[in-house]
Amino acid sequence: xxxxxxxxxxxxxxxxxxxxxLFAPGFGCDQNMWRYVYxxxxxxxxxxxxxxxxxxxxxIQAYDPNKYNNLSAYAEDxxxxxxxxxxKETIFVGHSVGSTxxxxxxxxxxxxxxxxxxxxxxxxxLNDPPEYAGGFEREDLLGLIDMMERNYIGWAKFFxxxxxxxPDRPELTLELEESFCSTDPLIxxxxxxxxxxxxxxxxxxxxxxPSLILQCANDVIAPIEVGEYVHNKLADSTLKLMQATxxxxxxxxxxxxxxxxKDYLQNRLPDQKQQGSRRx
Length: 280
Fold this sequence. Notes:
It holds the Pfam family Abhydrolase_1. Belongs to the AB hydrolase superfamily. The protein is α/β, with parallel strands linked by helices. The chain is built from eleven helices and seven strands.
């Protein structure tokens, strides 16, 4: 079982530190999207990277559509990865839906996590007025799903610039578009349904692990109101508003992302302060 989940999820282990930091991708992305960020932590951490089953270089044969129709299944895989590597008090870093997956895992097994860092998190993408503004109407999301079914390549070309939101850097949009297109359309559609129609707002108050929320400017996928909502619901959270624009600051603005992560960890982890002061 240990080797199965590690090979199926294409788990990669780097670095030599005593503490462990684990990076979880967002929707339509794989571990390669962290390549601008994780090297900055290899000197002080054991770095864990992985792909969701059905995406990236994971074992496509392990994908079960009857299982992966909700985010809890992905959280279960995350727990299995941590257990297989005998991880405890891990620093978890999740992007977008990866944040929610990490939150669900931390609720089930809080002992596995020391801190959770959430980049562009959203517990619910649907508007629910007047109490909640998720950013999308149901008709908008249904339209995206319909576009995925009818013209997946066209959907990728439409959705990638919306997510990246850095029009002056078209190479980043192209990379995200190619990442979307590398996933089987049927798997991508099911992951999209599980992601964009989930409502995990009630789970926010169950989280006991301290968290950092990184909120980008002009993020149409997870607007600032969503970041503030998550901050207000999580018991021990820190909200940092970024200069970075769009929904993928670890790709578009990795230096700022790294700096904010290190600042938070150096303040929260006493044994990291001295190392951090030398490095930055």
